[in-house]
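Sequence, please.
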C-alpha cells in the first residue's frame, strides 16, 4: 500500500533498550503462537525480485491445517505461468450456508529492501525498544498474520460463526503493473473472492505525543489511480534558428496551467465523516476551516489553508492531477523534436477516467499535445456505505480497548487491493486497529516498523470485531 499520512499526534520518544526476545505476557496463552506465526511470515522474503509469495502462503496454510481447518477448505492458487505468485484462500464455514461470507483480505508481498541500507536485516524480525522491525512488519504482514491467527483461534475454540469467514492472503499489491492476484482472481475466478463485504488494510489509528490513542480510522473508498501520457512532437532543427513554437516551452506552459488548476471539491460520506471527526481533534483555527469547507465546498481560502496544513487533506477533497515526469530534447544544440510528460491523477470515487482526461485536455489548452491514459484504465467505483452495521461494531469493540477514542471515517488517497474488490461488487473497508505515531511505520522505506503494543492491540481488536460482523443477523 502507498504511504498514508497521519493527521493527529506527534512522534513518540523511542527507548534505547533492545531485545530480540519474542516473549509473551502470561495473561494471554495464545500470544506465543501468534508471535511465532508473525515472525515466520515476516521472515519469508516476498519481494518481487527474489521472493516467493507461494512459500509464504503455504506456510500460513500449514497453520490453518494444524488448527483443524479441513484441507478441502484451503487452497494456494496461482496462474500456471507465475508459480511464485500464489495466494492463500481459506474458509471457516458458518452456520448459515445461504449467507455470503465475510472476507479478510491482506497482501503478503512486500516492497524491495537492501540489507546494506537498513540498520537491521530487513528479513529478520527484530523486537527493539517496544517496536517490531522488518520488511512487511507493518505493510501488510501485520494484518495477514492477525487474520490467519484469527482463523486458527476460532477453529481451536470451536467457534462457528453465523456467516462463513473467508481468508485471502494475496500477492502483487505492491507491484500490480507486473501481476496482482486480487485483480486476476476477480477477473478470471470471481467466485474465489466473492463475499458480503471485506476487511482490508487502508486505515489505522493515531497516537498523541504521549502515546495515547486518539483516533481510530475506518476507511471507506479510495481514489482511482491513473497515469496519463502527454506528448508533443516537431521536426526540430538547428538551435541557432529558433522557431516560434518549441515543444519544450509549449509543454512547460501547458503543465503550468494544469498545475494551477484545482478540480472541484466533492465531499462524500467518508470525507464528511472524516472532517467532522477531525474538527474535534485539531487546532481551533484548523477546525474552523474544516467546518467551513463542509458548509461551503467553494470556500477557496479555507481549502488553501487546509492544503498548507496537510496535503493529504487537500487530496481527500477533490481529484488531483500532478506532473511527475518529463522528458524531451535530444541534443544541446538542437531544437527539440519530441517532449513527453507523465501526469499522475488520483480520482475521487464516482468520477470517471474519461471525464478527467477531457478536463486535462481543456486545461492544457494546447492542441499540439496529445493526452492518453497510460497502462490499465482505472475503474470508477462508489465509496461503500458507512452505516451503523459497519461503524457500530467498531465503536463497541474500540470502547473495550481504547475507551473514548474517536472513530474517524476516512477515504484513502492512495491505492490498495480494495479497488479491485469494490469494482467487483464486494464493499471493502480498511480497518486494522493498529496505531502509529506521527512518524508512521516507515512502510516502503528504511527500517519499517510497528509498535509491539499496536500489533497486539490490533490483534485483540480484529479478533473481536470479526466475530461481531460474522455473527450479525442476515441483512445487517
Amino acid at each position: 500500500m502507498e504511504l498514508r499520512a497521519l493527521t493527529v499526534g506527534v512522534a513518540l520518544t523511542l527507548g534505547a533498550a533492545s531485545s530480540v526476545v519474542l516473549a509473551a505476557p502470561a495473561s494471554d496463552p495464545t500470544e506465543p503462537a501468534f508471535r511465532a506465526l508473525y515472525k515466520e511470515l515476516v521472515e519469508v522474503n516476498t519481494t518481487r525480485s527474489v521472493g516467493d509469495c507461494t512459500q509464504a502462503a503455504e506456510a500460513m496454510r500449514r497453520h490453518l491445517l494444524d488448527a483443524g481447518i479441513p484441507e478441502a477448505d484451503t487452497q494456494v492458487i496461482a496462474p500456471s505461468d507465475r508459480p511464485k505468485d500464489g495466494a492463500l484462500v481459506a474458509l471457516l464455514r458458518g452456520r448459515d450456508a445461504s449467507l455470503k461470507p465475510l472476507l479478510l483480505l491482506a497482501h503478503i508481498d512486500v516492497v524491495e529492501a537492501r540489507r546494506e541500507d537498513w540498520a537491521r536485516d530487513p528479513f529478520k524480525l527484530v523486537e527493539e525498544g517496544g517496536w517490531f522491525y522488518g520488511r512487511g512488519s507493518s505493510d501488510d504482514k501485520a494484518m495477514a498474520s492477525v487474520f490467519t491467527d484469527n482463523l486458527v483461534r476460532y477453529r481451536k475454540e470451536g467457534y462457528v460463526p453465523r456467516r462463513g469467514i473467508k481468508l485471502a492472503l494475496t500477492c502483487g499489491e505492491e507491484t500490480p503493473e507486473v501481476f496482482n492476484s486480487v485483480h486476476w482472481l476477480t477477473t478470471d475466478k470471481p467466485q474465489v473472492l466473492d463475499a458480503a463485504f471485506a476487511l482490508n488494510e487502508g486505515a489505522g489509528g493515531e497516537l498523541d505525543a504521549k502515546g495515547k490513542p486518539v483516533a481510530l480510522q475506518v476507511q471507506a473508498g479510495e481514489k482511482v489511480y491513473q497515469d496519463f501520457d502527454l506528448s508533443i512532437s516537431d521536426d526540430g532543427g538547428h538551435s541557432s534558428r529558433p522557431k516560434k513554437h518549441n515543444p519544450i516551452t509549449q509543454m512547460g506552459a501547458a503543465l503550468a496551467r494544469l498545475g494551477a488548476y484545482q478540480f472541484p471539491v466533492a465531499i462524500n460520506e467518508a470525507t464528511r465523516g472524516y472532517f467532522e471527526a477531525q474538527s474535534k481533534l485539531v487546532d481551533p483555527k484548523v477546525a474552523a476551516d474544516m467546518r467551513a469547507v463542509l458548509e461551503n465546498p467553494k470556500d477557496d481560502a479555507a481549502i488553501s489553508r487546509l492544503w498548507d496544513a496537510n496535503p493529504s487533506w487537500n487530496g481527500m477533497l477533490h481529484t488531483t492531477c500532478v506532473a511527475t515526469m518529463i522528458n524531451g530534447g535530444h541534443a544541446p544544440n538542437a531544437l527539440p523534436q519530441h517532449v513527453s510528460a507523465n501526469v499522475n491523477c488520483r480520482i475521487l470515487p464516482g468520477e470517471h477516467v474519461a471525464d478527467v482526461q477531457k478536463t486535462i485536455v481543456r486545461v492544457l489548452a494546447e492542441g499540439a499535445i496529445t493526452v492518453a491514459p497510460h497502462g490499465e484504465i482505472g475503474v470508477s467505483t462508489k465509496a461503500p456505505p458507512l452505516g451503523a452495521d459497519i461503524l457500530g461494531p467498531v465503536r463497541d469493540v474500540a470502547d473495550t480497548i481504547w475507551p473514548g477514542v474517536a472513530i474517524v471515517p476516512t477515504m484513502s488517497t492512495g491505492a490498495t487491493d480494495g479497488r479491485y474488490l469494490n469494482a467487483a461488487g464486494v464493499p471493502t473497508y480498511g480497518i486494522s486497529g493498529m496505531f502509529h505515531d506521527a512518524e508512521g511505520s516507515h512502510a516502503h522505506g528504511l527500517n519499517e516498523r510497528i509498535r509491539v503494543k499496536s500489533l497486539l492491540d490490533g490483534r485483540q481488536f480484529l479478533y473481536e470485531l470479526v466475530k461481531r460482523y460474522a455473527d450479525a443477523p442476515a441483512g445487517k
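The first strand starts at residue 74 and ends at 77.
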